[in-house]
Amino acid sequence: MTALPTAGSSLLLPAILLAPVLAMLMIVFLPKDEGKTIKIVAAIGTFVSLVLSLYAFLTYNQALGGMQFNVTIPWIPDLGVTLALGVDGISLPMLLLTNIIGFSSIYASWNMELRPKEFFILLLILITGVMGTFIARDLFIFFLFYEIVVIPIYIMVIIWGSSKRVTKEYAGMKLTIYLLIGSAFLLVGLIALYLAAGKNGNPTFMFDQLAARQDLYSPAFQKVAFGLMLFGFGSLISMFPFHSWSPDGYAGAPTAVSMIHAGVLKKIGGYGLIRLGIMVLPLGAKFWAPLIAVLAICNVLYAAFIALAQKDLKYVIGYSSVSHMGYVLIALAALNPTAMTGAIAMMFAHGVMSALIFSMIGFIYEKTHTRNIAELGGLAHQMPRLAIGLLLAGMASLGLPSTVNFISEFTIFMGTIHVFPALAMLGIFGIIFTAVYILRMIANVLFGPRRPEWDHLTDIRGAELVPLVVCVFVIFIAGIFPNILMGLINNGVYSSGLAKVLETVSQVKMGGLF
Amino acid sequence: MVNFNFATVLTPEIAMAALALILLAIGLLIPPGARKGMMPLTVFSLLGVLGYTLFDFFYGSKASFLSGMYLHDQFAVYFKVLFLLAALLVVLSSGGYVQKFAEHRGEFYSLIMAATLGMMIMAGAGELITMYVGLELMTISFYILVAYLADNARSSEAGIKYLVLGATSSAILLYGISLIYGLTGSTQYTEIASGIGGNLTPASFLATVFLLAGLGFKISLVPFHLWAPDIYEGAPTPVTAFLAVASKAAAFAVLIRVYLLMMNSQAFSATGQTLLVVLASLTMIIGNLVAIPQTNIKRLLAYSSIAQAGYLMVGIIAVSVAGVKGVLFYAMIYVFANMGAFAVATHVAEKQGSDDIKDFAGLIRRSPLAAVVMTASLLSLAGIPPLAGFVGKFYLFSAVMDQGYTAIAYIGFVMSMVSVYYYLSVVKVMFLGEGEGLPDIPVQGAMKFSMLFTMIITLAIGIYPTPLAQMAFAAAQSLIK
């Protein structure tokens, strides 16, 4: 692989990363009863990041392609770790997504009165960790940021979460242990890869270097290493059968954590599989692809069926997000550029959509103190704005044309139908079930006769509207002018060298798992 | 042989011996009411010795003398720095706790110094008898320290237990040493290495296993770990901290020398390697699993420290510069993480008179700093980035995987994720519990300093490990050329 074109050094990414950190440090020194100030500081911090990442998104030079806004500092020389940041067409949408959701999640927690200081400190650490994962160009730094997020989530779930079907302590611990056990295997795979790449001296963790040293990884090694990563990242993206943390975790978590977790954190799994799995270990990917495709369809159908039977709003959406991740996984398994573009777009689309839907459910729960679908009904009478938000999010979830979700699902099926025709057809059927559970949920919660017990509720207003406005704007802008997003992703798939890897691997004659 | 001066090379040891005696004398001369100044006095003397030792590490002349009986290489000096740091942190966080036995304060600090001197001799010893002398000096000081709360039955019980079991393990160790002397006619590591021969005879096997058992007792390697929880629970908390950190590190210093210089590439290595892999795996598994149901913070930390010994063993199994470097690096960050956790435990024990985890309830509101320090320390022990424990484990396990031992890496990583479970259960109590009826216990003075210091170092090394990694590398290289 030839050296990738890279632009000069830039301080943009460190600034994006440090803005929430600075806000967090300021909050540390604020008195804990100044809830309003704390929220404003947190909002400013994430707003700065959002604006800067939007700037990066708009000024990214597509003609040049590759990693841009690079920062490269040797960090741990004896291990070969480099503090290397940079974004390309694959990671930039993810970075923007993180900031959109991070910014919205602050407003979704605007009414947080219980220990706001600790809450916003942890939330900002969480946002920083997720951002760092997407902008790292070094595997070690990537993993470091990924593991940073696990503990704040645990603390947030046990303090601010809610106990319904399972207690919040159980939900938090389940989520944490699942992800950590996954990351233990991931870490073994990562060290094995690192040692294999450093066999001839010059140890490195840089993604591009690891990918460039492919002749050092034997096919047998690639199979094992990819298997380990599939387990680690697969648990994170809630791949069947490692998905069961996801509905419980989301149901137990406070709104902001559900938004970030379902919106972006999960996507680290998909992103990791692309950046590390497919680009560095293509033969391993080819070996495991058929299994991933089958499991992906299990995700799509099995989770959709379970979602049909759920009574709790958050469980419906929790299983729905497991189901949607099936589309991402089958697209990854297809191993062609079109499907890859679709997978990345789907991660973006699903992220915005699930953030919106979780924030709306969060408001419903905050106001009515219930998430049981049977107890709710006719909320559109009292809360029309909230109803609009939930309705639009539901439409996006089932992939209605003019939403970005439609574009991405369409691209995924374009890319997969000729690779796995039968499985892709099954996947398309999954959309029908999605429509059933989403429409049923919307009908039962929002519509129907006016219920007098909800007459005292006030509609969302002021700061509470921010998640609604931001997410709906993004869903439709990217849905109506798909080239804004798809152009960049497509550019990323080609200019990052992913497409070339996929082309090479498609010519390799190697039996898959089946 | 290089020309050098005994006095300059042995300065830290001489200083520690003098300090131990001076502190003892001061304790006798000054009336009990006026002994508050003992703590700052000890701290500043330790700081002086530490400063000199650090200087010695980078710039001092390195030599072995008395025909290889005592070694003064960077490896030994690195461990001396570690022991001094541990002693310093123990003394800093023991100020309030030692109030309880005001009339014996002088002896307390004097004994800590004596134990530290013993460890230093262990790290520097180039032959088995010198090592044994250092080990006994350390252990006998600990017998007294463990039983220091004279009117507390548990402390006395722990002291007796430690005395009986420690004496047994010393006997086993001595037996091993005498067998080795009988087989090779020498007690010096390098001469034993050439004399022990290529064939694994029953006698040489027995000797090495005895040696391993004696040292395994000190590092609480499974199956020689059974003493640890009881004694950790009964001993005064600062003593437990010192026992868990420094005495373990000292035994590791000896084990590395013995194993790498004496037994490596000898007849023992093939069988011994398998034995060590099995023991290290068992140590990680049992330490972590048994820690889960614990309800007493000191017992929990005791089992956790058993598990940590398992991680450290992994670096020895690697038998490489990278492995030794991993052990050195991890041992140092283990000092900070464990000292942080024990400082909080000491603080809570001192203010609330209890070691039960349930009494940490609501600590985040009652004493935010202590709760945050405890969380950071425990997460570093668990190996969660950006704290130092992660980098340390990375060094250890990448070294052992480089030598082809993948299975133990799986066990290590999965077990350290399991350890997150019980560490988080402490975190949960601190953050979630209401702590009704429990007092506010703000942290002050030296205790506050030692807590902040351990946390900042743990975080700083986790984010930028390069300086410590270079030191550990230099020390490891001085051992294995």
How would you characterize the overall build of this protein?
The complex is a heterodimer of chains A (514) and B (481). Chain A has 514 residues and is mainly alpha-helical. Chain A has helices spanning 12-28, 35-59, 91-108, 116-135, 139-148, 150-160, 168-197, 207-212, 219-236, 245-252, 255-265, 267-280, 282-308, 313-334, 337-368, 379-382, 384-397, 404-416, 421-446, 465-480, 483-495, 498-507; strands at residues 68-76, 81-87. Chain A starts with 11 loop residues before the first helix and ends in a 7-residue tail after the last helix. Chain B is an all-alpha fold and 481 residues long. Chain B has 20 helices and two strands. Chains A and B meet through helix 5, helix 6 and helix 7 of A and helix 17, helix 18 and helix 20 of B.
Oligomer: heterodimer
Q: Roughly what fraction of the amino acids of chain A lie in strands?
A: under 5%
Q: How much is the average pLDDT of chain B? A: 88
Q: Portion of residues in helices of chain A?
A: over 70%
Low-confidence stretches of chain A: 1-7
Q: Indicate the structural class of chain A.
A: mainly alpha
Give the mean pLDDT of chain A: 89
The helix/strand series of chain A, from N terminus to C terminus, equals HHEEHHHHHHHHHHHHHHHHHHHH
Summarize the main sheet of chain B. Answer: 2 strands, antiparallel
| Percentage of residues in strands of chain B | under 5%
Radius of gyration of chain B, CA atoms, in whole angstroms: 21 Å
Q: For the largest sheet of chain B, list the strands in their spatial order.
A: 1-2
Q: Helical segment tally of chain B?
A: 20
C-alpha-based Rg of chain A, rounded: 22 Å
Distance between the termini of chain B: 18 Å
Record the SSE blueprint.
The complex is a heterodimer of chains A (514) and B (481).
Chain A: H1 12-28, H2 35-59, E1 68-76, E2 81-87, H3 91-108, H4 116-135, H5 139-148, H6 150-160, H7 168-197, H8 207-212, H9 219-236, H10 245-252, H11 255-265, H12 267-280, H13 282-308, H14 313-334, H15 337-368, H16 379-382, H17 384-397, H18 404-416, H19 421-446, H20 465-480, H21 483-495, H22 498-507
Antiparallel strand pairs in A: 1-2
Chain B: H1 6-9, H2 11-29, H3 38-59, E1 63-65, E2 70-72, H4 74-98, H5 105-124, H6 128-146, H7 153-184, H8 189-195, H9 202-218, H10 227-234, H11 237-263, H12 267-291, H13 297-318, H14 321-352, H15 363-366, H16 368-382, H17 388-402, H18 406-432, H19 445-463, H20 466-479
Helix pairs in contact in B: 2-3, 2-5, 3-4, 4-5, 4-11, 4-14, 4-19, 4-20, 5-6, 5-11, 6-7, 6-11, 7-9, 7-10, 8-11, 9-11, 10-11, 10-13, 11-13, 11-14, 12-13, 12-18, 13-14, 13-17, 13-18, 14-16, 14-17, 14-19, 14-20, 16-18, 16-19, 17-18, 17-19
